[in-house]
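User: I'm writing a tutorial on reading structure tokens. Could you give me a worked example: one chain, its sequence, then its tokens, then a sentence or two explaining what the tokens reveal?
Assistant: Sure. Here is the example chain.
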Amino acid sequence: MKFAALVRSAALVTAVALVPATTAGMARVDGSAGPEFSKLFAVYQRVKASYVEPVEDDVLINGAISGMLTALDPHSAYLDGSDLQRLETMIDGNYSGLGLSVVGEDGAVKVISPFRGSPADKAGIKAGDYITHLDGELIYGLELDEAVARMRGQAGTSIRLTVFRPGAEEPLEVDVTRGVIELEPVTWELQDGNIGHIMINEFSRDVGSDVFAAWKDLQEQATGRLNGLVLDMRSNPGGSLDEAVALSDLFLSKGQIVSQRGRARGESITYDAETVFRGDIAEGLPIVVLIDAGSASASEIVAGALQDHRRAVVMGQRSFGKGSVQSLLPLGRDAALKLTTARYYTPSGHSVQEGGIKPDIKVPQLTDPDLAKRSKFTMRESDLRGHLINELGIKDEELENDTRSDPRFQLTAEELEERGIEDFQLHYAVQTLRRTSPSAVASRKK
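And here are its predicted structure tokens:
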């Protein structure tokens, strides 16, 4: 029963847009594959007969399955009982640990992003960091699942992380106290000038409804009408495709939100506005969407939909670039296959695979003192080994444009701190909305 519920909910807080698939047509085995299967069986027999120590069948079979999926792309994986339990824990919304979204890269543990407000975030762990040791013990080459399991633990206990930060001269030793990670998918606040700020931290179940509730609360807090809205999806690694559609539908009243195209029958689907929520809840209100290199998958679906329909101005930095959809396919009662089954496309037909969502206005995070160093080593989908290639092609010079400096953004982190600005990207978005709000336009006309 638990596994069935897990497949139905299908919301994974990593850099994937996960969709449920309880049935799947089995592909016919090509006759030419016969010799390859014979080779696989021959290796199995050799290992069973000659390896230095006895090896159980389940170890060999699971290893063969994992190796098969490793040859595909970074997001396809075999999930057995322990992996499914971790997935269920994430969906339940809380666990004890550090609050990190990580990926394995050539035997190393690389941080995609810390969850906002988590112990790891407060300790200063940043996207792009490599975790090399846990309590002084080298974890390079360790299975990612085992490394993640070691980082988790009882709330209140501490663990020392040795972190290699690209651009830093020496490794960093960081002590982090584990906490209960209450995954708050949506948080919000009212900024000065009646500007709403809604932070979507990940796409678990009911995110669309949570954003709608946040909108209603902001309307009640405002003195008069709201003058603008910031949808903040920075460092949001993704989650449920359905919730990405629901969130987009809150602010669109017509047209396509996203489409997915796959090989199997039933994997090519179009998602349209007016299917989850009716109308645009913020009709006529200017909206800014904030993204960065940690915004992936479901975040890119929302940003791409609102950008293509010209419903919002996208600010920040080019997003992660994960334009594929994973389906969760059960294999018996306690295992499943997370398999990449489709690519998704924005309403204009743009695939974000590799290239990501390019902001309308590139705004660097100037309040980050390590910005210059870390920007050289920012990780995106295109940096992952075995990533899917964008079939439309992304020219190198288009990505290189992101590195050009803008004369508008020359202040240092120290200068911004003196002015009391803690988050430059948010500050710039709010200031932009204040200048373009109906009340500001009216005052300039007088």
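What the tokens reveal: Confidence is low (pLDDT under 50) at residues 1-25, 396-400, 441-446. The two ends are 65 Å apart (CA to CA).
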